[in-house]
Amino acid sequence: MNPRAMPVFAGGTGRSGSTIVGHLLDHHPDLTLTRPMEVRFISGNDGVLDALHAARRDPAAGLTAAVLAGERIRTRWFHRAPEVGLHTSMTREQVDAWVADYLDGFPGDPRAASTTLVRRIMDAICDHIGAQRWVDTTPANARKGDRLSWLYPDARVIAVVRDGRDVAASFVAQSFGPDDIFEALDQWGERMMRIHRSLTSAPPGTMMRIDLFDLVVDARTRTLDDMLDFVGLSSSDAIRTWFDAHVTAYAAHGGRWRSLDPATVEAIDERYAEICTRLHTSGVVIPHGD
Fold this sequence. Notes:
The chain is 54% helix and 7% strand. The chain is of the alpha/beta class. The chain has 2 domains: 1-34 and 131-290, Rossmann fold (3-Layer(aba) Sandwich), CATH 3.40.50.300; 39-130. The chain has a 5-stranded parallel β-sheet. The radius of gyration is 19 Å and the shape is globular.
């Protein structure tokens, strides 16, 4: 089988560790991290998967969503920053032609049109970076992992989860996402629920869940071995060396929310406990904390 038909998609809640997993797998000789490392147009909001999902329920709504996905591919995702975007691997003329073909074919066969568009774009990226099998780290991959099989039946999807308090503290330190830690906690809870639904709906053997705490602290070797086995890779000296040097508790910046004032820490713990109780009731496995 063509290695490009067996990609790896890593994702999570955002700020949960999918980036470190992508960089780790990039150090295996048989996998290459995409450039950009978050291609976004497949599983991102209003992307190809959203249009395909809409078409399965209502063809007219699906076509409207496909037009929006095509526009985002041509604009927002084409050039996000000077060195970040689809423009680093392909021309605007190529993308315009591929999107036109996608929209022409979508009404008759949404899945075939979507698959052709995605594989054309990903082949261009792979040709540019010299990749065969590839890994993408768009966070939404984990929340739509059950749908990724519509485009890549032989893909593997890794959902990376992390203590919600660490996720929330990381978000508020960024220039994107929630800037209020309690809003960030609520978002974490919603996304954890979506990941759970994706894990339970995905075809057997196509998704796995990794707890970042296990990978960096509690069960390092076993978690790495399980991940490599899941994606069908043997171990390598290069990935082990990089893992030992860079995938560490220090690099994960765990527990920084504890440095806030005592009243805020107490309020965070209370909100987090409430969210975790609701998630647990729904069958969600809560990530380990430090």
